[in-house]
Write a structure and sequence with these properties.
The structure is a single chain. This protein has 130 residues and is mostly helical. The chain contains 4 helices and 2 strands; from the N terminus they run βααααβ. The radius of gyration is 27 Å and the shape is elongated.
Amino acid sequence: MRPTPKAKVRKARLLVSKVDSWSVLKMSFLLSVALGIMTVVAAVTLWSAMDITGIFDRVNDLAVQVLGSEGAGDGFAVEELVTVGQIASFATIIAVVNVVLLTVLSTLASVLYNLSSALVGGIGVTLTDD
């Protein structure tokens, strides 16, 4: 019995000559919103992990050692200076700014790509069928 011959590998050379700016805008907005949600969740999780592991207590003890008992005061606590609400608010502000910046910059990049590909022809891509 003869072995079956291998199928010939097909190759296709394609050219990415234009990128739809509207689809880039929608996709970059959705991805940057997901990144923003991850940023807020990571910031709150990190603060909670630091609180649970007692890092704030160690920082308070270090402040008492460095500043002395008079300088630190009786009511000094790092977790009162920086609360989880403040951390979540700051992370949310950063996330909103990132959503706006990433959406605008990626849309601008797609417009610039379309302009430059009109001059040089775009990016060549070779696709193969394995």
